[in-house]
Design goal:
By secondary structure, this protein is an alpha/beta fold. It has seven helices and ten strands. It has one domain: P-loop containing nucleotide triphosphate hydrolases (Rossmann fold, 3-Layer(aba) Sandwich), CATH 3.40.50.300. Strands 2-3-6-1-7-8-9-10 form an eight-stranded mixed beta sheet. Strands 4-5 form a two-stranded parallel ribbon. A hairpin with an 8-residue loop joins strand 7 and strand 8. The radius of gyration is 17 Å and the shape is globular.
């Protein structure tokens, strides 16, 4: 199956052009991201992979798994790449991590040599951080390495065969303090009107690369 791009996800109305520009800019700046959803198949991996395509050329993408042993696939020599933790979950899959391995992954971000892309099942931002800090014991200062958090919804009566998927909300995470997130809502989907809305401007995403305007122009050109 062909992987969907951010452009595809704008065209099928999973996200707005402004959301896509935010995702692309975050990857260009190597921001750590967290995808959140309740049902399986909501698009966590699809959006994450489409986002990582905008990382700088040559950026390493390191798939973490317990099959690699105690180091989980985290390179010994820092290369500025992304650590890809498929899911924070107790499901019996080698690339789904829980507990001590999750704590080790977040601790490895302290030196600033890697960024993280991961996902989990939760009902929103606060519950997602509770899964990370409360259930997995990740210290708040380590969880604070996450910078972009997005919540996905699967629309329709049957989650196994959704009529559509949408990015319901997109946050810029300032920090985690005492296990609670401090974040600003950048974009959201208004269900009653089936439209996307910008809420707040980011305070740091886009300020390093300055790539947001060009990305926004690119994705806006796709809109009807």
């Amino acid at each position: 199956m062909t992987e969907l791009t951010l452009a595809d996800l704008v065209l099928n109305r999973t996200m707005s052009p402004a959301m896509a520009a935010t995702f692309a800019t975050a990857a260009a700046e190597r921001r750590s991201t967290l995808a959140v959803a309740i049902p399986r198949g909501a698009g966590k991996s699809t959006v994450t992979q489409a986002t990582l395509a905008y990382a700088p050329a040559g950026t390493g993408i390191h798939q973490l798994s317990e099959e690699h042993g105690s180091h989980l696939g985290i390179p010994a020599a820092a290369d500025g790449g992304y650590l890809l933790m498929s899911e924070i979950s107790q499901a019996p899959m080698l690339d789904y991590l829980w507990g001590d391995p999750v704590r080790r992954v977040f601790a490895s971000l302290d030196a600033g040599d890697f960024a993280l892309a991961t996902a989990l099942h939760a009902s929103g931002l606060e519950e997602a951080i509770e899964v990370i800090c409360g259930q997995n014991g990740v210290p708040s200062e380590h969880a604070s390495h996450l910078e972009l958090v997005f919540y996905l919804r699967s629309l329709g009566d049957d989650w196994r065969n959704p009529e559509r998927r949408t990015v319901d909300s997109l946050y810029e995470l300032d920090r985690v303090e005492d296990g609670r997130p401090h974040a600003r809502l950048l974009h959201r989907w208004i269900e009653d009107d089936d439209r996307f809305e910008g809420v707040e401007r980011p305070e740091f995403i886009g300020h390093v690369s300055g790539a947001y305007p060009s990305h926004l122009e690119l994705f806006r050109a796709l809109s009807p």
